[in-house]
């Protein structure tokens, strides 16, 4: 156990910095065994503060070489070096501060700061990685103009990049090469980036709306140059979309993307030089699945959109993280919805929100979208900050309408360009542009926990009225009780017996916005009366998932089936289906499940539907995940959930069986693979059909075998592999896995998918098989993608295998976390998530999981990352 408890940082303690850094000139000299960094900082006293001329810079794992003030080298008595700081006192108003230090990128396994990945150097500075490169004011409200010089042996690293525009490139007298970059836009150091390597580049150009030509470059290791085209296309689409939808234009002469194999997250929006996890940017048809293509499109857009929402206007402090992340996720979701099917995009986002984010919000790590404290900021790159944050922005969009929202975002960007601001300023811009008071709405940023909305309705045929009573409450979360009523926009519709939307006339009238069909719930309990309702309507509530709440409303299976077939809101059709399926799974648990004739007919007609988007159909026919089911049961018994869900799946497959072979044939496509929406939709449905077919028929397995052998694209090959692994004989499964590895062992990203198939299969994954994967030549503890592909997938997807009654699954994960704590604390901490849910499990499992958390807690040298999550989970 650590002897000193790490410090908690509080939002309420925010104070401005004592000095500003107007200009940063960084010289980075790369040598084989070490790197020397010289920072020349033009510092200026913050005259709004009564600062005493003392300046404390952040630094971590730095070997200090020298400090000079205005050209005069200081002696060691003239400054104090702490464990993670460098302090100078007696300073005047302005100085040139020069600091030299040495670092060892090749030993950096935490992947923060400057590190080696494969054959290259790269950086990751968000949130607090810059302090591992140089002593600095490592906080986002210190914005500085950067000039960067990179020096290395000539010819060693043909590509040397940093932010902004290249201003010089020459071989010096000593024979070393020096490349210089200048970024004219002041930025916080978390947006700094540097790359050096022997890289290939795909080049293109983009002409902005004002007619400027921007060079676009995607840099990759040589073997990946044939996987860059799609990302380039996605980038150009993103640039155009941001101009058209938000009026935002790109601002530098060049925009660069670099792919690296070792990366903790998806990608990073460094100014003009985005760095990507190679799994989120590289694709070609043979190696990437359709979902990988969609992920790449979304992440390329996300990072690009940050250029305005994050870089031009940045965060004052890390408590404001959702200012840039929630808004940018909202923006990238709008982009993906426009490029593909908007309803499908909504379904995917809500699926993830309701499983992962709702679970976080109901567990020990629950925190508001604007947290008020943290120990380690890396732990707060969460689904709450990102996805719930995006939902909150989405509600603002719904409240203000398209035009009002755009007025607000224009005002926000114009007013705060070049500044580091808070969430308050974002909402204030929305208020000022629209003349609206959003004080109550702002509670969404402050209160953690998923609000519950209970709805009850009654119809009066004589009066032709429908009365709807809504009640809301938000449960207590760690450190937060007595939550106040939120402003909840509830989109709804009334359907007549033929499935048509009826006109809505509500009292009180001011609670209804006709243009968006939204009812405003603002009190703990409110009753609304709908007039002139000529027949008993079916209520379609929370359309499009208009607010991130849990809706409790009693509807019979017949009513749900009606909505599944008739709702005019595509999202709610799907959602009614999910509720119906959840009901089936509950029945299966209590041993009383069978599909009614009407339900069977509905399933078959969905399978054969030719009107709806096929991707939507594949979602409509797919059961809710085990984690979603778990979210709605207490206490959670993973094995019981798994078996009940499998029972239902089998029943659906048997119902569809007479039609599966024919539908599968119909959905084959004669045209060459393209990663475009219509083809993707068709493949999604075809492969869902294949999985039902293989589940209940040996013909289906044979079809999977044929598809596996003949596929010319990874989407089909991977779907077939999954069907063989899960439904084929042991021999078929083994043979398919072996031949797949044989075919793809040279491609690390495909091998990751191969690892995931095994780690995530409830049938194949056992503790022993996971241990074997960890020993496999393809596994590497230092590579986050490998760790996620095996351990992350095992603990989050193969639920029956992970929740072994002898605790062996938990012990395996705990061992891995303890090991990773010393290699990569961020990875270790992220892997803890499944263990934080122990309180929700059935008692026999709960105690076992808790014991593993305690074992982790008792280790020496716990990183701040792991310490925070473990201690909060156990308290
Ligand atoms: N800002 C990036 C995410 C990111 C955050 C932290 C990182 O390292 C700790 C890396 C990337 C984004 O939102 O895409
Ligand atoms: Zn982001």
UniProtKB/TrEMBL annotation:
Gene3D superfamilies: 2.60.40.1840, 3.30.2010.30, Neutral Protease Domain 2, Peptidase M1, alanyl aminopeptidase, C-terminal domain, tricorn interacting facor f3 domain. The keyword Endoplasmic reticulum does not apply. Its EC number is 3.4.11.2. Coiled coil: none annotated. Residues 23-191 form the Aminopeptidase N-like N-terminal domain. Its cofactor is Zn(2+). It catalyses: Release of an N-terminal amino acid, Xaa-|-Yaa- from a peptide, amide or arylamide. Xaa is preferably Ala, but may be most amino acids including Pro (slow action). When a terminal hydrophobic residue is followed by a prolyl residue, the two may be released as an intact Xaa-Pro dipeptide. Keywords: Aminopeptidase, Hydrolase, Metal-binding, Metalloprotease, Protease, Zinc. It holds the Pfam family Peptidase_M1. The keyword Ribonucleoprotein does not apply. One of its GO terms (biological process) is proteolysis. Residues 230-441 form the Peptidase M1 membrane alanine aminopeptidase domain. It is an enzyme of class 3 (hydrolase). Residues 558-874 form the Peptidase M1 alanyl aminopeptidase C-terminal domain. InterPro entries: Aminopeptidase_N-like_N, Aminopeptidase_N-like_N_sf, PepN_Ig-like_sf, Peptidase_M1, Peptidase_M1_dom, Peptidase_M1_pepN, Peptidase_M1_pepN_C, Peptidase_M1_pepN_C_sf. Residues 449-554 form the Peptidase M1 alanyl aminopeptidase Ig-like fold domain. GO terms for molecular function: alanyl aminopeptidase activity; metallopeptidase activity; zinc ion binding. Aminopeptidase N is involved in the degradation of intracellular peptides generated by protein breakdown during normal growth as well as in response to nutrient starvation. Belongs to the peptidase M1 family. PANTHER family: PUROMYCIN-SENSITIVE AMINOPEPTIDASE (PTHR46322:SF1). This is Aminopeptidase N. It comes from Bacterioplanes sanyensis.
């Amino acid at each position: 156990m650590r002897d000193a408890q790490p410090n908690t940082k509080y939002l309420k303690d925010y104070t401005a910095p004592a000095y500003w850094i107007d200009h940063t000139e960084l010289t980075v000299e790369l040598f084989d065994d070490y790197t020397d960094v010289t920072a020349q900082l033009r510092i200026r006293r913050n005259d709004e503060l009564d600062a005493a001329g003392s300046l404390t810079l952040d630094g971590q794992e730095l070997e200090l070489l020298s400090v000079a003030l205005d050209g005069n080298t200081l002696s060691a008595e003239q400054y104090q070096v702490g464990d993670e700081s460098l302090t100078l006192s007696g300073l005047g108003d302005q100085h040139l501060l020069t600091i030299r230090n040495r670092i060892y990128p090749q030993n950096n396994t935490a992947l923060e700061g400057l590190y080696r990945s494969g054959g290259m150097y790269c950086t990751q500075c968000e949130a607090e990685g810059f302090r591992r490169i140089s002593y600095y004011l490592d906080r986002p409200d210190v914005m500085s103009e950067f000039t960067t010089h990179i020096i290395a042996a000539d010819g060693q690293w043909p590509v040397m990049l940093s932010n902004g525009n290249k201003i010089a490139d020459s071989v010096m007298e000593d024979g070393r090469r020096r490349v210089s970059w200048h970024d004219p836009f002041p930025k916080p150091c978390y947006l700094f980036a540097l790359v050096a390597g022997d890289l290939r580049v795909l080049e293109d150009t983009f002409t902005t709306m004002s007619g400027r030509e921007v060079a676009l470059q995607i840099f990759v290791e040589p073997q990946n140059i044939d996987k860059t085209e799609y990302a380039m296309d996605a980038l150009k689409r993103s640039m155009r979309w941001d101009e058209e939808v938000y009026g935002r234009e790109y601002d530098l002469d060049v925009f660069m993307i670099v792919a690296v194999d070792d990366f903790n997250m998806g990608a990073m929006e460094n100014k003009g030089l985005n760095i990507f996890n190679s799994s989120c940017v590289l694709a070609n048809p043979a190696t990437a699945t359709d979902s990988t293509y969609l992920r790449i499109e979304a992440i390329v857009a996300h990072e690009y959109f940050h250029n305005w929402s994050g870089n031009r206007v940045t965060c004052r402090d890390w408590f404001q993280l959702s200012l840039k992340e929630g808004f940018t996720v909202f923006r990238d979701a709008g982009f993906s919805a426009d490029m593909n099917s908007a309803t499908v995009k909504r379904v995917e986002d809500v699926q993830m929100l309701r499983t992962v984010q709702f679970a976080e919000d109901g567990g020990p790590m629950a925190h508001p979208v604007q947290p008020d404290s943290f120990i380690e900021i890396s732990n707060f790159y969460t689904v709450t900050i990102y996805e719930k944050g995006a939902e909150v922005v989405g509600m603002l969009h719904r409240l203000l309408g398209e035009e009002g929202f755009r007025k607000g975002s224009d005002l926000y960007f114009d007013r705060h360009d070049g500044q580091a601001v808070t969430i308050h300023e974002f909402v204030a811009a929305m208020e000022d542009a629209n003349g609206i008071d959003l004080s109550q709405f702002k509670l969404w940023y402050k209160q953690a926990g998923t609000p519950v909305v209970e709805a009850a309705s009654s119809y009066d045929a004589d009066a032709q009225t429908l009365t709807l009573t809504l009640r809301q409450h938000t449960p207590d979360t760690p450190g937060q009780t007595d939550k106040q009523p939120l402003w909840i926009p509830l989109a709804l519709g009334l359907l007549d017996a033929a499935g048509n939307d009826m006109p809505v006339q509500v009292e009180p009238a001011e609670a209804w916005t006709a243009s968006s069909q939204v009812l405003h719930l603002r009190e703990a309990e409110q009753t609304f009366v709908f007039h002139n309702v000529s027949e008993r309507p079916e209520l379609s509530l929370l359309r499009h998932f208009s607010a991130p709440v849990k809706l409790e409303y009693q509807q019979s299976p017949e009513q749900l089936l009606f909505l599944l077939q008739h709702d005019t809101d595509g999202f709610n059709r799907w959602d009614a289906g999910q509720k119906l399926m959840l009901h089936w799974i509950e029945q299966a648990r209590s041993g009383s499940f069978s599909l009614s004739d009407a339900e069977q007919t509905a399933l078959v007609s969905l399978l054969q539907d030719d009107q709806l988007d096929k991707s939507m159909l594949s979602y409509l026919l797919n059961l809710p995940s085990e984690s979603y089911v778990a979210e709605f049961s207490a206490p959670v018994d993973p094995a019981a959930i798994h078996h009940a869900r499998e029972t239902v799946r089998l029943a659906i497959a048997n119902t569809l069986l007479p039609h599966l072979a024919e539908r599968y044939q119909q959905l084959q496509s004669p045209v060459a693979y393209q990663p475009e929406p219509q083809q993707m939709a068709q493949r999604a449905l075809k492969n869902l059909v294949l999985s039902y077919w293989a589940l209940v028929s040996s013909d289906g397995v044979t079809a999977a075998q044929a598809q596996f052998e003949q596929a010319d694209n990874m989407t089909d090959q991977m779907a077939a592999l999954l069907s063989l692994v899960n439904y084929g004989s042991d021999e078929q499964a083994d043979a398919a896995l072996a031949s797949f590895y044989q075919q793809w062992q040279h491609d690390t990203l495909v091998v990751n998918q191969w690892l995931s198939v095994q780690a995530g299969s409830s049938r194949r994954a056992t503790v022993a098989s996971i241990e074997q994967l960890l020993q496999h030549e393809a596994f590497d503890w230092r590579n986050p993608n490998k760790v996620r592909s095996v351990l992350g997938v095992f603990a989050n997807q193969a639920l029956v295998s992970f929740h072994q009654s002898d605790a062996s699954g938990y012990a395996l994960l705990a061992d891995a976390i303890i090991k990773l704590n010393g290699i990569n604390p961020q990875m270790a901490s992220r892997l803890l998530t499944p263990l934080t849910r122990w309180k929700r499990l059935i008692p026999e499992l709960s105690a076992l999981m808790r014991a593993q958390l305690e074992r982790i807690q008792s280790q020496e040298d716990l990183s701040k990352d792991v310490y925070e999550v473990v201690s909060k989970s156990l308290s």
